[in-house]
Write a structure and sequence with these properties.
Elements (H helix, E strand, L loop, with lengths): L1 E5 L9 E7 L6 E2 L4 E6 L4 E5 L4 E6 L6 E3 L3 E6 L3 E7 L5 E5 H9 L6 H9 L18 H10 L13 H4 L20 H16 L2 E9 L1 H18 L6 H14 L6 E3 L2 E3 L6 E3 L1 E3 L2 E3 L2 E2 L7 H17 L12 E5 L18 E5 L3 E7 L2 E15 L5 H16 L2 H5 L2
Parallel strand pairs: 14-18, 18-19
Antiparallel strand pairs: 1-8, 2-4, 2-7, 3-6, 4-5, 6-8, 9-10, 11-21, 12-13, 14-17, 15-16, 19-21, 20-21
Helix pairs in contact: 7-8, 7-9
Length: 409
């Protein structure tokens, strides 16, 4: 029986997908739920599993082709024998039944890209790790648990260096060489470029600045970080403070949390905050939902999960859809000051920057404090200058006096 392999149902905001990589070729055995190809959209990379075990009998789309939602990409013959062969006792070749070949393939070829990277990075033997996924498939959590269980003690000799560290560096180009190369832009990079240009062309973008004394938050974090981590199982960072401060400011100035649609202004009575995260494929913005109802621990846990998924390329379309406001932290890369660009159709974005000790005047005296510049880029069509300035002042006051976040004042 022939079974269709289709493009997953795509969100309304994603018109199509590009075939990124086939993991299997025609005639090869596949196991049920084995990843057989990857699709790239303008937001995420999607892994497409085999719906049934069998032999990949027909491939209808090639790498680089565009495919629509639910379009048929290939067909699997669930009753055919695989062209892959197994050696017999006389050294000859024997045809392998599809089910048997699929089971054999499942042991080594079903590793997701995230698992493959972890295994290669730490030079692990995948067969030595017990899989807890469907059908015994090895998943990322299995590898992380294995690494945690086999973590060397501080006094132990240095472990074998990861395979990636042992690779020789790419030799430099010959002196005086003036080579050029061309690479196709990824769907994500093209979408980023499109949206940034759209923001510049359609919105009246202005940026207002302020600076914040980080000492109160840093002191609070230092005092409670160990107890916080023991209690909640997640590190206490600074982003949760800024997310909570943003909620307070968005509630006071609802225009910053709104957007323009035609001749109407659409206001939100909730705060879904996008957090800009760097990934190997470019900048992505997963969204924290209903931040007003989230605890500090909830926020930190969600951000940590987003960061891990961004690195693995496993963020879902749902996790990056929507959002009423965005926070971008260029400070993690050393940025001192910048003017962030809006994430359409949102009307504002908050830019955080590097915390650096500087002399400031406090109560008539010059003291050294850890200071951070803040930037709020906003759409002047909907947000007035007064609102933008007071919004940023609200953020500043909340960070410099964290008790405000608890008392709502």
């Amino acid at each position: 029986m022939l079974v269709d392999v289709k493009v997953p149902v795509l969100a309304e905001s994603i018109p199509d997908a590009t075939l990124l990589d086939w993991k299997k070729g025609p005639g090869e055995a596949v196991a049920r739920d084995e990843i057989i190809l990857e699709l790239e959209t303008d937001k995420v990379v999607l892994e497409v599993p085999a719906p049934q075990a069998g032999v990949l009998s027909e491939v209808l789309k090639n790498t680089g082709d565009i495919a629509l939602s639910e379009e048929v990409l290939a067909r699997i013959d669930t009753e055919a024998a695989a062209t892959a062969t197994a050696k017999g006792g006389d050294g000859g070749a024997q045809a392998v039944p599809a089910a048997q070949a699929a089971d054999e393939a499942a042991g080594s070829d079903t590793l997701s890209p995230a698992v493959q990277r972890l295994v290669a990075e730490h030079d692990l033997d995948a067969s030595a790790i017990t899989g807890t996924g469907k059908g015994g498939r090895l998943i990322k959590d299995d590898v992380l648990a294995y690494l945690d269980a086999h973590k060397p003690s501080p006094a132990a000799p240095a472990a074998k260096m990861p395979a990636t560290a042992a690779k020789p560096a790419t030799p430099p180009a010959p002196s005086g060489a003036r080579g050029e190369r061309r690479e196709s832009m990824s769907r994500l990079r093209m979408r980023i470029a499109e949206r940034l240009v759209e923001a510049q062309h359609t919105a009246a973008i202005l940026t207002t600045f302020n600076e914040v004394d980080m000492q109160p938050v840093m002191a609070l974090r230092k005092r409670y970080k160990e107890q916080f981590e023991k209690t909640h199982g997640v590190r206490l960072g600074f982003m949760s403070f800024f997310a909570k401060a943003a909620v307070q400011a968005l509630e006071r100035f609802p225009a910053v949390n709104a957007y323009i649609e035609g001749n109407e202004i659409v206001y939100h009575d909730y705060q879904d905050i996008g957090v800009a995260v760097g990934s190997p494929r470019g900048l992505v913005v997963p969204v924290l939902r209903n931040v007003a109802q989230m605890s500090f621990a909830d926020i930190e846990a969600a951000i940590a999960e987003f960061g891990a998924k961004a690195g693995d390329g496993t963020l879902t379309v749902e996790e990056m859809s929507g959002g009423t406001f965005t926070i971008s932290n260029g400070g993690v890369f050393g940025s001192m000051l910048s003017t962030p660009i809006l994430n359409p159709p949102q009307s504002a974005i908050l830019g955080m920057h590097k915390t650096q000790e500087r002399p400031v005047v406090v109560d008539g005296e010059i003291v050294v404090r850890p200071m951070m510049y803040l930037a709020l880029s906003y759409d002047h069509r909907i947000v007035d200058g007064r609102e933008a300035v007071l919004f940023l002042v609200t953020i500043k006051e909340a960070i410099e006096d964290p008790a405000r976040l608890l008392l709502g004042v």
